[in-house]
Design a protein that fits this description.
The protein is an alpha/beta fold and 339 residues long. The protein is 39% helix and 24% strand. It is built from ten helices and 14 strands. The chain has a ten-stranded mixed sheet with strand order 2-1-5-14-13-6-7-12-10-11, with helices on both faces. A two-stranded antiparallel ribbon has the order 3-4. The longest helix has 18 residues. It is globular and about 55 Å long. Bound molecules: nicotinamide-adenine-dinucleotide.
């Protein structure tokens, strides 16, 4: 917090629709008088000792400010530099990815009252990036599960459940097939559960979770789901589908020191620069950020204005069936802040 009473937060606007949706956040925050000063940084990768790295200024900014809000970063497929998102997660050791999915009144989906929280291990598993050719035509990819990273994310999940008042933690796994790797994750969960006697613990196979989640998600409302990296990646998008898609779902990448909050969707190159993007996911990510920073009053007033605007349905963006431009939707939220 600076001498002006404001907190400085790193802002990574990102690619494609990133700058447009970041503008909505900036406009709404300034209308709501949120005590935040944005520090925009560029994360275009540079080469250092033959490795792709994030510029030092960006790293210094996040390290100094502890919190960052991030727009989508475009990743080239299959070749070129490693995903910048992965690099950010590794650089700041953002070990837990928190993905809440809450039904939005006014946006009709097959289920009402969905309120799930999924926590994904964010640093290893199938995303360890260890792949090699054994012989021509045979490629091996290593799923890395360590006690250290597993315990860290599991303990975070139990603590999170306790903090937000969800009574249960459920591990999602495939320990029947990945007996050693998922087996380790599951066994560590059983151990850590003993540290949290007030939180109920159980486990479920990933395929079964998928089936049950799309059949009836409501029984998952009282649980925090925690799982290895790839399962979390897939299942969290499935959950997003239950409430209306990626335009509406926020996320937080939590580390021991720094945390980066970001929308789940990508840079949407098909609609970039046209003023058509829906900023809700980035806005809701910023609300998670405000809660994380203890600015709960600001968080709830902006959140209410967002939900009110969505429920009114008068200024919705194209992805939600409306005709509003990004800034018209943001303006409607600003009027509802004052209402
Ligand atoms: P995408 O999420 O960018 O787009 C998928 C579809 O959803 C598109 O039709 C797009 O127009 C729509 N969409 C996404 N966000 C929207 C929004 N806020 N409002 C309205 N419509 C929205 O996925 P993609 O096309 O697979 O990926 C594009 C690029 O983004 C790729 O380079 C990818 O690597 C990157 N990406 C980045 C992140 C991230 O930074 N966290 C996440 C996913 C993808």
């Amino acid at each position: 917090k600076g001498s002006d009473g404001k907190y400085t937060v790193t802002l990574i606007e990102g690619d494609g629709i990133g700058p447009e949706i970041a503008q909505s956040v900036k406009d709404i925050y300034s209308a709501a008088n949120v005590p935040i000063k944005w520090e925009p940084v560029d994360v275009t990768p540079t080469l250092k000792d033959g490795k792709t790295v994030i510029p030092d200024e960006a790293i210094d900014s996040v390290t100094r400010n502890y919190v960052a809000l991030k727009g989508p970063l475009a990743t080239p497929v299959g070749k070129g530099h490693v995903s910048l998102n992965l690099t950010l997660r590794r650089t700041f050791n953002l070990f837990a990815n928190v993905r809440p999915c809450k039904s939005i009144a006014g946006y009709k989906t097959p289920y009402d009252n969905v309120n799930t929280v999924l926590i994904r291990e964010n640093t290893e598993g199938e995303y360890s990036g260890i792949e090699h050719v054994v012989v021509d035509g045979v490629v091996q990819s290593i799923k890395l599960i360590t006690r250290e990273a597993s315990e860290r994310v599991l303990r975070f999940a139990f603590q999170y459940a306790q903090d937000v008042g969800k009574p249960k933690v459920r591990v999602v796994h495939k320990a029947t097939i990945m007996k050693m790797s998922d087996g380790l994750f599951l066994n560590l969960a059983r151990d850590i559960a003993k540290e949290y006697p007030n939180v109920e613990f159980d486990a479920e196979m990933l395929d079964n979770t998928c089936l049950k989640m799309v059949t009836d998600p409501i029984p998952y409302n009282d649980k925090v789901l925690v799982m290895p990296n790839l399962y979390g990646d897939i299942l969290s998008d499935l959950c997003a589908g239950l409430i209306g898609g990626l335009g509406l779902t926020p996320s937080g990448n939590i580390g021991d020191e720094c945390s980066i909050f970001e929308a789940v969707h990508g840079s949407a190159p098909d609609i970039a620069g046209k003023g058509l993007a829906n900023p809700t996911a980035l806005l809701l990510s910023s609300i998670m950020m405000l809660q994380h920073m203890g600015l709960t009053q600001n968080a709830s007033s902006i959140e209410q204005a967002i939900f009110k605007t969505l429920a009114e349905g008068k200024a919705l963006t194209g992805d939600l069936g409306g005709k509003a431009k990004t800034h018209e939707y943001a303006d409607a939220i600003i009027s509802n802040l004052k209402a």
